[in-house]
Structures
1.
Amino acid sequence: MDKGKASLFTRFSSQVAKLAGKPVTFMLAALIIVVWGITGPIFHYSDTWQLVINTGTTIVTFLMVFLIQNTQNRDSVALQLKLDELIHVTKKARNELMEVEDLDEKDLLQKKEEMVELSHEVEDEADDEIEEIEES
């Protein structure tokens, strides 16, 4: 797949999300807070001194929410496509689950109950097979 076809915003948001998750980024943010705290006495803990950190953190937080959400949305779609492909190529899989992410919460809970029941049936079958093997 050609990564060069991704939009500028897609590439930018992916890079920012990757950078935001690195330890060095956390350390830089912590350092900024420490420097800001140290400068408090110099600026006599003024309203402007407080406004600088409040404005800066608000802007960064506001923008990061949208960038990270964009990245998470794309990652969720990509993961769903990969799971759909696995369902598609598995002979015993129920294809009705390929679009399960589009169901409402009530239907999702019903599907979950069905899957739990199915897993218990599979466990029971496996236990029966183990007993048969042990008896022979």
Note: Residues 15 and 26 are 15 Å apart (CA to CA).
2.
Amino acid sequence: MDLQTLLSIGLGIGLAAACGFRVFVPLLVTSIAAATGHLTLAGGFSWIGTRTALVTFAVATLLEILAYYVPWVDNLLDTIAGPAAVTAGIIVTASVVTDTSPLMRWSLAIIAGGGAAAVTQGATTAARHLSSLSTLGAGNHVLATAEAGGSLFLSVLAFLAPLFAAAAVAVGGLVVLVLLMKRPWGRPAAS
């Protein structure tokens, strides 16, 4: 596996994890990069770099970010965002992984891309539920801001330092796993 392929895999994993924070931010960043000629997309994904896709992703991003500031709508969106984030993570990973066979591209997209998006989305959903319960939703706007910023930061980081972004996603996934393993299911956390 050459360096270019490894970088594209790192880019895909970083963008997929960012989909777990906000579904459309990484797609918008990818669309901008493709439309400006800074990214070559895998075959069959050139539509992501079109003006129509760029405008659509921009509007969807704006609506998604704003909707997370509406009390209780944010919790409803988390229900929808789970499958949407996984799907977006798969699509964005498959679109940027180049110079591999279709089997390898889609396997990476489904396992690594979908998995990274699922872990990030699961962690943000858990954080929102905890915030909703502990602050009666009053603290959710802070969480919404952090998630949108995290999605943008991770998307840009994936383009600037794809292997670092992928490593950060792996470490973050391990932290979530450790936290889940420490908490006994069915019992409340110790205060």
Note: The CA atoms of residues 21 and 149 lie 9 Å apart.
